[in-house]
Design goal:
With 365 residues, this protein is of the alpha/beta class. It folds into two domains: 105 residues, no CATH class; 204 residues, Four Helix Bundle (Hemerythrin (Met), subunit A) (Up-down Bundle), CATH 1.20.120. 57% of the residues lie in helices and 10% in strands. The chain has 14 helices and nine strands. A five-stranded mixed sheet has the order 1-2-5-4-6. Strand 4 and strand 5 form a beta hairpin. Helix 8 runs antiparallel to helix 9, helix 8 runs antiparallel to helix 12 and helix 12 runs antiparallel to helix 13. The two termini are 36 Å apart.
């Protein structure tokens, strides 16, 4: 319930601004509530206008007694033991901190933190909602929650439109799960349109679904409303629907083409490659403990262009624009073999390194 007190949080002062439709204090409340086990014996003392990224808060919990500063140098927040009395106004300089056995965080303290969920390194983020334009603060926070390893469309095309939609949805109270449910409905409608041979209409809805698939996670992170159920609701359909789409797309293409063997063969290659790629990813993580695309820079670049959903949609869109949807489908099959075929090769290379006594480690950590 919004505004309900939560153990482990003390907010001092007041703030006028709101970020993504909620006050910074409510955002802090949600963050602390989701970390209740790790904050059983400590307390976050924060200014009412303070905005902390998740990776910053996690670092503070692991390093109690270090005061993080706002962009203008004021004491923004500190994690202390449960019984400590702290007045943030008295922590404006090093001497005020030293009197209480605290210290102010340096830039080095909050640099190059690893975010496992987002698969990237990022600097700690501390903002003051009243010290900068709200849109600027929201953009900084939005960029902070964006995944580092993803496909080329999600990384370079979706960020700006997704930011503006996330801003709108957060203000009118639309939940991330509602966005996810909408994208799931679009998934089924897209499959039907592909099956019926309505390729253009299907591609329009497919792109809409993939866009919403980006929006729901960002909306959850910036409003601190992520949940295990929402995560499963978002990711399980993502694993299942691509091969369903490609099978329906193949059937739809068969309606208006005599190249039956070519279309069916391409569908088998695309779906088969997808399954192989997913299995290699699961196997790599099970053996070495991290996602395959995090191993070396090459693997991260491969993820940008590998034949996954958005890449195949892009190839099909170009094919349809050129009036050659079947050729686009065949090209998607060729691209699947060329790119996904690299994954088992990389797995073998990692295995060879491990056999030689040099266990693979992620370059991003």
């Amino acid at each position: 319930m919004a505004g309900e007190p939560v153990a482990g949080l003390e907010v001092q002062g007041s703030a006028k601004g709101r970020i993504y439709g909620i006050t910074p204090a409510e955002r802090l409340r949600r963050q602390v509530a989701s970390r209740s086990p790790s904050m059983a014996d400590c307390r976050l003392v924060a200014d009412a206008g303070c905005i902390l990224s998740d990776v910053t808060l996690d670092w503070m919990i692991a390093n109690p007694g270090i005061v993080v500063k706002s962009p203008i140098g004021d004491a923004a927040a500190v994690v202390v033991d449960g019984g400590s009395e702290i007045d943030l106004a008295s922590l404006r300089d090093d001497s005020g901190c030293a009197e209480l056995g605290l210290r102010r965080a340096s830039d080095a303290d909050l640099s190059a933190m690893y975010n496992r969920k987002l698969r990237r390194q990022q600097d700690g983020l501390v903002l003051d909602v009243d010290a900068m334009p709200v849109a600027a603060a929201e953009w900084r926070l939005f960029k902070d929650v964006y995944k580092g390893i993803t496909d080329i469309v999600t990384r370079y095309v979706w960020p700006v439109p997704a930011f503006w939609l996330v801003r709108l949805l957060s203000r009118i109270g639309v939940t991330p799960n509602a966005v996810t449910m909408t994208s799931i409905v679009l998934t089924f409608v897209t499959a039907y349109l592909f099956f019926e041979g309505m390729i253009g209409e299907g591609l329009i809805l497919a792109w809409t679904m993939t866009f919403l698939d980006t929006v729901d996670g960002k909306l959850a992170r910036v409003t601190c409303t992520s949940s295990p159920f929402g995560n499963k609701l978002d990711h399980i359909p993502d694993l299942v629907h691509p091969p369903v789409w490609w099978g329906c797309l193949a059937y739809g293409l068969l309606r208006d083409s005599a190249d039956h063997a070519l279309i069916v063969g391409s569908a088998v290659v695309i779906v088969g490659s997808y399954v192989v790629g997913r299995l290699v990813e699961v196997g790599f993580k099970k053996v070495y403990g991290f996602n395959q695309y995090m191993w070396q820079p090459f693997d991260q670049y491969l993820r940008l262009i590998i034949a996954r959903r958005n890449t195949i949609l892009a190839i099909m869109t170009v094919g349809l624009i050129l009036g050659q949807p079947v050729a686009g489908f065949v090209l998607a099959a060729v691209w699947s073999v060329l790119t996904i075929g690299i994954q088992p090769i990389r797995f073998i290379q990692a295995w060879g390194m491990a056999r030689g006594g040099s266990a693979p480690t992620p370059w991003i950590q």
